[in-house]
Amino acid sequence: MRYFRIGLLSFIIAWILILSVNAHEVGMRADVQARSASGARVTYSATTLPVNAQIISITITVIYSTREPMAHGRIQIYAPDRSDIPWRVGRLDAEGEYQFTPDLSRRGRWTIRVESEGHTNFMNLVI
After folding, report:
1. Count of alpha carbons within 13 Å of 64, Cβ hemisphere only?
2. Tell me: the pLDDT tens digits for 22-37?
3. How far is it, in rounded angstroms, from Cα 98 to Cα 19?
């Protein structure tokens, strides 16, 4: 009985280690290109974007904690007025990036969700 418990415990520890090796955190970043009052292009992050910015485009970058890009992962973008149906669905490129221009008539919280091989993450972007 003692050897059975030791064997079972070893088996459980081995499975935990195997599962933890395959688990990765997913990081997301939004770089927002906007036009300044003088007409110059300025890049903002999700946290530094001014209210009512004249947005040109948004680039979403997604990487794993291993610093590998989430290449070809699925991306869903939800507009502020429709959180149940994606406004746009697409794929990240080989570098884990996706670029889009939001509908600026829909001001508010946009939700961006990504997933690939069981890894997911989301972010909210207020524009």
Report:
1. 16
2. 557 899 999 999 998 8
3. 29
